[in-house]
Amino acid sequence: MTTVINDVKTYNLYINGEWVSPISESYFDVISPATGQVVSKAALGDEQDTKRAIDAAAAAFPEWSAKTGRERAEILTRLYQLMIENSEQLAKSISVEMGKPIQQARGEVMNAAEYVLWNLEEGKRVSGEVIPGAVKNRRLQVIRQPIGPVAAITPWNFPLGMVTRKLAPALAAGCTVVLKPAEQTPGSAILFFELAEKAGIPKGVINLVTGTPQQIGDALLSDKRIRKITFTGSTNVGKQLLRKAADQVKRVSMELGGHAPFIVFEDADLEHTIEQLARCKFQNCGQTCISANRIYVQESIKDQFLSLLKEKAESLRVGNGLEKGVDVGPLVSKAGLNKVEEQVNNAVEQGAKLVTGGEKYEVEGHEEGYFYKPTILADVQDTMMIATNETFGPVAPIFTFKTEEEVVAKANDTDYGLAAYCFTKDLSRSVRVSEALEYGMVGINDTVLSQVEGPFGGIKESGMGREGGTDGLADFLEKKFISTII
Ligand code: NAP
After folding, report:
1. Ligand 1 centroid to 269 CA: how many Å?
2. What's the pLDDT at 363?
3. Ligand 1: centre distance to CA 158 (Å)
4. pLDDT, position 1
5. List of residues 6+ apart from 247 with CB closer than 8 A
6. CATH of region 9-256+463-485
């Protein structure tokens, strides 16, 4: 259970239905990126704590997986309702720990709850197949069964959304889970577990370990009882986990980094495009895997586009996400701020033009916060760091292009393949471009790609597997083929 001393909460591990202190008896600080102050302390778990959590998940699996989809759905419905009832508390925790404006945090909570609702419904409808065979007295069928105990590792940028995208389908499918949330943002995951306990999720079915990532990751990946790892985070860490998962041929779902192209053709509705771009680029302070990172504008509309985007960027209010009317919060950490500064400085040194922003933002009373002004760079070239490295910040780099063929080639010239956007009123072009873009998701005049009804995920080095839609649950089920002679 969470304890609070001088407003600083202390979070323990959740193993086998109990809140327990870590074997190390140590805790690490969780810092508010807006104030630089310690807001909570989380348990420094290690391999041994993780082993305890795996023991619990493995022991709980037979009973949880044997329940019917409806029985599991009843418990998950209570969890969904509790999330809605406690949405403000969840949103506040997200905003305090990772900095996003409170209204965006509220949106994240609703989206996270929708993943629970969607998957509990899907869980009732898991079915198999009866296949006509070649021989009269033989019957062929396929059944689908839960994969087994699952390891889930999540990032800080959507600290609750990423948890329910994994746990909701896993639980609805009949899997048990060991979760390791990101060190910057354990609070909303802890709250979610408290709600899950209240909802009646049986002991051992979900377990939470915070602490040293490598030790926890190694313990999860080297244990044969863990049958699948589902990870959201950087491509770099994803590759390390994939290599380790290969040793035991564990199932994997990888939601990794992105470097989304955002293509604006001269016939696009510019007002709509700027609204969508500002949302996609500056929401979450640009710390989104599907954020528009390479903005390609057709040469003929460059000046008009830049002037509209500048006006929009300068209208955004930067500040502590908990304050009313704030559009852009701080970056999550000093390292995040440094990376943004490095990319902007590198671009400007190599000839990019700073249209607006380009520096830290001082918020009165929050001198320790990691704030950065919404920034626009024009005349960006392919050789600049920002053109190839994932940008995780409020920086909009503008490239120009002449033809459709040229821009599609440029958009595809990357190792990433998560999300891409195309803005045009030409229907035929929108079809051609969406089919030619080598990405897992494409938005046509739209930037909202994280919708529970659709499969979210990437190709190339952006990962494998899908979350949401019918695929989300399917990724936690194994098919079994049964052939019977009667
Ligand atoms: P990260 O550094 O890869 O961390 C993600 C998670 O992995 C955290 O819980 C982290 O723990 C853990 N981790 C780090 N090293 C590990 C290791 N050696 N073994 C096991 N676990 C390890 O990524 P991040 O900075 O938190 O998140 C940003 C990245 O996530 C971006 O690249 C973004 O594009 C990507 N992302 C992708 C999607 C998608 O759906 N494709 C969605 C959101 C974010 P600690 O926090 O304790 O270090």
Report:
1. 36
2. 86
3. 11
4. 58
5. 221, 222
6. 3.40.605.10
Q: Which pair of structure tokens corresponds to residue 432?
A: 């051609």
What pLDDT score does 9 carry?
87
Catalytic residues: 255, 289
SS3 at position 53: helix
Three-state secondary structure call for residue 443? strand
Type of residue found at 7 = D
| pLDDT number for residue 122 | 97
Residue 436 CB partners (closer than 8 Å, separation 6+): 408, 412
Pick the CATH number of 260-444 from 1.20.1250.20, 1.10.10.10, 3.40.1580.10, 3.40.309.10: 3.40.309.10
- For the chain, residues with pLDDT lower than 50 are none
Out of 108, 236, 256, give the residue to mutate to test ligand 1, the one with the largest number of ligand atoms within 8 Å of its CB. Answer: 256
C-beta of 237 in contact with ligand 1 (< 6 A): yes
Orientation angle between helical segments 213-221 and 47-66, nearest 10 degrees? 50
Give pLDDT tens digits for 249-284.
Answer: 999 999 999 999 999 999 999 999 999 999 999 999
Residue nearest to ligand 1 atom 41, measured at CA: 255
- Looking at residue 6, what is its pLDDT? 62
Length of the chain as a residue count: 486
206-208 and 353-356 strand pairing: unpaired
Determine how many CB atoms are found less than 10 A away from the CB of residue 359: 11
Q: Measured in angstroms, how far is the CA atom of residue 87 from the centroid of ligand 1?
A: 24
Nearest atom (ligand 1) to Cα of 184: 46
Judge residue 183's burial from the number of C-beta atoms within 10 Å of its C-beta, 0-12 exposed, 13-18 middle, 19 or more buried: middle
Other C-beta atoms lying within 10 Å of the C-beta of residue 307: 11
* Residue range(s) of every CATH 3.40.309.10 domain in the chain: 260-444
Mean pLDDT of the chain: 97
Pocket test for ligand 1, best of 31, 49, 153 (most atoms within 8 A of CB): 153
Residues carrying CATH 3.40.605.10, the chain:
9-256+463-485
Closest CA to 409 of 389, 428, 431, 433: 433
15, 16, 18, 23 alpha-carbon torsion, rounded to 10°: -40
Can you tell me which atom of ligand 1 is nearest the CA of 257?
34
